[in-house]
Amino acid sequence: MKQKTKINKRKAWVGVVSFFLLVAIIMQITILTYDFIIEKTDNVALIAVLILVLIAILSTVITLIDYIRRKVMIERPVRKILSATGRIAKGDFSVRLVPNHSYDKYDEFDVIMEDINVLAQELGKNEVLKTDFVSNVSHELKTPLAIIQSYAKSLQNENLDSETRQKYANTLVSASKRLSDLVSNVLILNKLENQGIKPQSEKTNVTELLAQTVLQYEEVLENKNIDLVCDFDDVVMQTIPSYLEIVFANLVSNATKFTPENGEINVKLKQENEKIIFSVKDTGCGISSEVGSRIFEKFFQADSSHSQQGNGLGLALVKKVVDNLGGEISVSSQLGKGTTFVVTFFN
Ligand SMILES: Nc1ncnc2c1ncn2[C@@H]1O[C@H](COP(=O)(O)OP(=O)(O)O)[C@@H](O)[C@H]1O
Ligand SMILES: [Mg+2]
Fold first, then answer.
1. How far apart are CA 174 and CA 300, in angstroms?
2. What is the atom index within ligand 1 of the atom nearest the CA of 311?
3. Which CATH topology does 202-346 take?
4. Fewer CB within 10 A of the end CB, N or C, for the chain?
């Protein structure tokens, strides 16, 4: 955001002083003219008429000067601002106002114009993010839906042998799971981003929660013959268990997904004074440094061979949750060797 601009007060004073000087000069002329008339004639009626005419002329001149002053200094910028805010209200965020003065001579209207420019720019950015998000979600919805449609059709074939039927049914189950994962991730992300009602924090047995989460991956780990090494301290802390579960589940799930057969995964939970450190280390494909800076973005997936098993929202969600809980997350990795995610919470 742009820093608040300093308004040029000196310029405003110059305007006010010049206006008063002008009025003073006009009054001086009136007095001099009055003296002149008095000297030339003693016809009271004529003097009265002349003074009246003089006053009328002077009032018109002052009103005219004030009218022009208001037109140029107030009405013109106000009209410019109103037309811009009107366009923004109609959803046109391309509006950019050019201030009337150079930066060092800004008045209040120039500052308002600059602020409107920043507002329009930020609203425009949000609009792009929203559109990108909607198109990403739609794309992610389409893929499993197409799978479901085509396999459901294939299942209608009565001549299928039971093995193929089972295979198709499994595909249907995994595609619908992908759909429901996507929908729940989007819902949680939406809740976190809108900072709506936050779940209550409660005294949580973190060790038990982590153990339960890891257990859910037992079967996959066994199938891939991955060695799981756990080292947990007994940790109890005040936190939001459903949020913590998101962190544990996503990091363990990624480690399981990106580690090839016969690999090893180390999951640690350590308490060091007020710090609670959770880490997941795997011997998977690793992440290059260019990719490393993008893995927390929504829908980002570096490894296309596993893209069917996720939607790129997991780490975005983890980052949001960790930020929300006041923690920190870091990643270190070596391509082809493995990755370690470390999450630190402060008790
Ligand atoms: N443990 C890991 N090892 C290697 N790459 C990883 C690991 N965790 C995450 N990544 C990379 O970060 C990307 C984003 O992860 P995530 O947001 O969880 O999405 P998803 O798991 O749905 O692909 C992954 O697609 C992958 O490229
Ligand atoms: Mg994931």
1. 21
2. 22
3. Heat Shock Protein 90 (3.30.565)
4. N
Tell me if 121 sits within 8 A of 93, measured CB to CB: yes
Q: State the closest ligand 1 atom to the C-alpha of 307, by its place in the atom list counted from 1.
A: 23
Domain range list for the chain: 1-197, 202-346
Q: Say what the pTM is.
A: 0.71
**Residue of 257, 315, 320 to mutate, ligand 1, most atoms within 8 A of C-beta:** 315
Determine contact, residues 170/155, Cβ cutoff 8 Å: no
Distance CA 260, CA 285 (A): 8
Sign of the alpha-carbon torsion through 133, 137, 142, 147: positive
What pLDDT is recorded for position 1? 45
Judge whether 275 and 241 are in contact, CB under 8 Å.
no
Which residues in the chain land under pLDDT 70? 1-12, 195-196, 304-308
pLDDT of residue 231: 97
- Ligand 1 pocket mutation, candidates 256, 301, 342, criterion most atoms within 8 A of CB: 301
Q: Give the C-alpha separation, 272 to 276, whole Å.
A: 6
The per-residue pLDDT for range 140-195, each reduced to its tens digit, is 898 889 999 999 999 999 888 999 999 999 999 989 988 888 898 888 888 888 76
CATH number of 1-197: 1.10.287.130
DSSP notation for 14-78: HHHHHHHHHHHHHHHHHHHHHHHHHHH---HHHHHHHHHHHHHHHHHHHHHHHHHHHIIIIIHHH
